[in-house]
Amino acid sequence: MPGRVWCYGWDSVTAAWVKMLVNAAGKLIIDPSEILENTPTDGEVAKAPTSNWAYDHNADLGAHGGPGEGHITILPFNYNAIGQGTFVFLIASSSWGCGFYYNSSAADLDNISYQVYMGAGTYTLRILCMKSSAGAIVDIDIDGVEVASVDMYGAAPGEENQLLSATNIVVATAGLKTIRVRADGKNAGSSGYQMRITSITFWRTA
Question: Could you give the CA distance from residue 104 to residue 89 in angstroms, rounded to a whole number?
């Protein structure tokens, strides 16, 4: 055909140039069976992910098991927002991680929030903290709903590396969740509302 450009490839077996397959628009036709180590046998050879599919699949973490499917560990200083209070890091060489993050304001209703992705399922919460004679009762909310409450009151001068737990925390739908940690009252023996936290962990159990 006048003006048509042909594409040739070298055939090493016959030691000759051979015309390559093209469609009516002149686009090269590739046989997947010559490329794939294990050719699909379910009739899907002609299909491949488009750029839109790749983007959407990556964006939909729940479609292929994203973060939150096993466990989530939150370091308390990596917060998203402080709702009330002043929070600072305090070095304590005998604590795991050599310190903890706490509300130096030590007021009732002090709170701090984190944002994490959680898959739908049931979780166990574990808070590594320091109990103290000024410790608060601490509530944990997920998207504004209280899911756990722990008591951080302890004997003076303090009980380091304490692991407080809550079980059967249900996350109904997967997505980005706001985890809020807040002081909500105190033990009758406590003199304040301190929250001294080293780490917060959610373990997926079901």
Answer: 9
